[in-house]
Amino acid sequence: MWTCPTCTQSFLRANQTHSCLEKTEADFLRGKSAVTVGLYHHFLAQYRTIGDFKIHPAKTMISLAKNTRFCSVFQFGRNFLDVCLPLNQVYDQTLCFHKIGHVGEKDINHYVRFYDKEDLNEEVLHFMRLAYALDAEKGK
């Protein structure tokens, strides 16, 4: 692991590209509705049942990381939460993703939108576990 001397974030590789910002998790949650904040905390609690991770606020999103960033909360809507799970193949035979897009050669971003805590169901948890497991493979 490499730690940036400027912002003290930890990364799998030395001199990994990132932005050294002073933005915090609280900055993202400030002014958001109780619904959105509740969804965010529920999402984090569910991910903590899968494994431990660090929260990395960035300029436009909050990422979750173990070895690398395996998930991003990229939109805090008025009554929803948008999350991106980078996976290694397309999973388009499910209704839980509202958008799927390729990033480079290996990562395929799968986007989930939560309006209610029940939207984070067993099928979504399966893909959350998969994203976490893929991160563990990268750390080997």
Automatic annotation (TrEMBL):
Domain DUF5655, first and last residues per copy: 26-134
Taxonomy, superkingdom: Bacteria
Cross-referenced InterPro entries: DUF5655
Protein name per UniProt: DUF5655 domain-containing protein
Organism: Rufibacter hautae
